[in-house]
Amino acid sequence: MKVYDYPLPDDRIAKYPLPKRDDSKLLVYDHGKISDAHFRDVVSFLPEGSLLVRNDTKVIRARLRFHKATGAAIEIFCLEPTLPAEVEQAFTARGESQWKCIVGNSKRWKEGALTTEVETSNGPVSLSATRLSQDGNTSEILFQWSETATFAEVIEAAGVMPIPPYLNRETEPIDETRYQTVYSEHKGSVAAPTAGLHFTPEVLADVQSHGHDILSLTLHVGAGTFKPVQTEEVEDHVMHTEHIVVTRHVVERLASKKGKTVAVGTTSVRTLESLYWLGVKLLAGQDITDGLGQWEAYTLPSDTPAPDALNAILRHLDATQSDELHSQTQIMIKPGYKYHMVDALITNFHQPHSTLLLLIGAFVGDDWQRIYAHALANDYRFLSYGDSSLLMP
Question: What is the DSSP secondary-structure string of 206-238?
Fold first, then answer.
């Protein structure tokens, strides 16, 4: 993993967003040539007739704080629902919901339920948390409350926005709006799809007025996105599972597209590429109930044309009488991976040793080092609240 390392001084990490989203810098990498611009001018660099694909997930207030009778503070960080496991069902649940969580100050919580009083839009609610089991650094938590409110309403009232750990600060009021894209819609992420944070309604309108199409899909981002690769071999790193939702309309547009596909962020990349492999699995007569595993993209047939894979998805939707594909992915994109769906990528600058940096390395090859060196030498801001890049290999 040493080759996917670079020096990132703490003062280059953007701790706060700029006053205006689209004032961020834009590094343009166009077939090996690097130039500098501002994000508000991104439309000037998009290939003609592009199909812009964005992730419309919405960050939830995933950090819940409780206090024991002794005064000890316990923080429960909700990672993903387990019962019901479907994200949308978990948020509309009334009375109880079960989640996989990380518990802060866990040693101080030996047994019993934790409770806190919550003032929801439907009135006061008493929220309790019971630890059912523990596996490593994660716990299975049962949340219970009165059925007057949904879990979405409870967590909205009780929770705190989970900003990235590398910001080394508490969540502040500005994060409530700026750690969310302007087009966020479907609740379920514990981290923002940060490439989309630069877009404003004006930039989106500019993109469409220049003849580009915009499609939305959903990948609920897990906390594992911040987990660095700490193993000697990339193959030993365990990827987190993320839930994806793609509508029939989006699959149809992707299958019939004529222009270049521009992914907004690595989360859109993972969704698009996973969609291809799920179609390949269907063509191979395999079940896709469990989604896409971490390494399946490296063992499945790789010569299937993208439209064929996408049409297999459409036939699957017909067979299941559904207008949406609900699935999950654990895909690991590393150097050597062959992209099937993505032609260009809008993305921020990622952490050393991260799986996201491996994804960039797979996309632009060794030129990622030249791109990052240019960004460091030209005062670009890094990570979630940092500046942006448009990569066209």
Answer: HHHHTT-EEEEEEEE--GGGG----SSSGGGPP
Q: Cα separation of 31 and 44, whole Å?
A: 16
Q: How far apart are CA 226 and CA 350, in angstroms?
A: 10
Q: Taking phi first (over 0 means left), then psi (-120 to 50 degrees means alpha), and beta for anything else, what does residue 275 get? A: alpha
d(CA 345, CA 342): 7
Mean pLDDT of the 188-196 span: 95
Q: How far is CA 63 from CA 46, 76, 162, 177, 189, in A?
A: 38, 6, 6, 16, 12
Residue 160 is given by DSSP the state B
Q: What pLDDT is recorded for position 230?
A: 55
Helical packing angle, 266-283 and 306-319, nearest 10°: 70
Distances (CA, A) of 133 to 85, 90, 144, 259: 17, 19, 16, 50
For residue 227, what pLDDT band results from cuts at 50, 70 and 90? low
Query: In this predicted structure, what is the pLDDT of residue 300?
Result: 96
pLDDT at 115 (0 to 100):
94
pTM over 0.85: yes
Nearest partner of 283 among 253, 304, 258, 266, judged by Cα: 304
Closest CA to 335 of 299, 368, 307, 309: 368
- Paired tokens of 331: 């895909």
CB 341 within 8 A of CB 304: no
